[in-house]
Amino acid sequence: MLFLDQRRHHDDDDHDDHGGLHRDLLETNAAVDRRGMLRVAARFGVALGAIQLIGCSGAAASITDSTGGTDTTGTSGTANGSAACPTKIPEETAGPYPGDSSNGPNVLNQTGVVRQDIRSSFAGLSGAVTGVLLNLELTIVSASSCTPLSDYAVYLWHCDSAGNYSLYSSSVTNQNYLRGVQAADASGKVKFTSIYPGCYSGRWPHIHFEVYKSLSAATSVSNKIATSQIAMPLAANNLVYATSGYTSSAANQARITLASDNVFSDGASLELATVTGNVNNGMTAALTVAV
């Protein structure tokens, strides 16, 4: 089954309730260098794991063992440290499977949605997903002051290892796993325990999220202040998709690149996660999100 997120450039998008899709200017040198690096890698099949990936938080990662060995991680900057203030996260479509009431089902007002481990269904539904462990860590900061935004809330969702979205895909309409809400701690960090998302036909591997000013605000989609997506790096994808349970993902990813994806094609430097770890002990994906 094909699941295609739609993105608005100049035309309207039925699944994005924002008045207009905009993108702030990227940091002049860093973003241009990063974007060029991504496009070269996508065009010539260079594994991004062989290139140090510099995120807006200043973190660097390099996957060194294609069989699933441990990544090496460079020195990480801090949200309000000496590094340049990160550019505001690009606004992206929520896609057709948000589960926030904007297109059908709504989990935001359900008991149990505030949770760190999102691998199982909740609110009276049973079922759980299997796949390579993924620990997600987002750092929510102010785009104007770089200060951590404690108590801000993030609603996060993504597909399973086969590319299916709970509540929407025909085989899992009776499940609501891989969806959850968490509030940022004093350092602006939001953590989720999940599985590595699969790759379905037509989209680069990604994770959706919405940002709210508080947990109470996160009970209604009308209160969201940002909607964006996390792009997963090629080197990490290749490690995960070589394992059992991700066979279709490997085939789907072979037919798309970051440069051809309808969401990330105009540049993904602010949305590309830094991923470390291995398929045996789990992967960790980190991204600084400025709002």
Summarize the helices and strands and which ones pair or pack:
Layout: H1 28-44, E1 53-54, E2 60-62, E3 72-73, E4 133-141, E5 153-157, E6 179-183, E7 189-195, E8 206-212, E9 226-231, H2 234-241, H3 247-253, E10 274-278, E11 282-290
Parallel strand pairs: 4-11
Antiparallel strand pairs: 1-2, 2-3, 4-7, 5-6, 5-8, 8-9, 10-11
Largest sheet: 4 strands, mixed
In terms of DSSP E residues, the strand content is: 15-25%
Distance separating the two termini:
34 Å
Rg: 17 Å
Helix and strand element order = HEEEEEEEEEHHEE
Described by its quaternary structure, the protein is: single chain
Give the proportion of residues in helices: 10-25%
Strand neighbour order, sheet with most strands: 7-4-11-10
The name of the CATH superfamily reads Aromatic compound dioxygenase
Q: On the 0-100 scale, what is the average pLDDT?
A: 79
Helix vs. strand class = alpha+beta
Task: Label the overall shape.
Answer: globular
| Overall structural domain count | 1
CATH class: Mainly Beta
CATH architect. name = Sandwich
Q: Please mark out the parts with pLDDT under 50 across 5 or more consecutive residues, or reply none.
A: 1-82
Total helical elements? 3
Number of strands: 11
The CATH topology label is Protocatechuate 3,4-Dioxygenase, subunit A
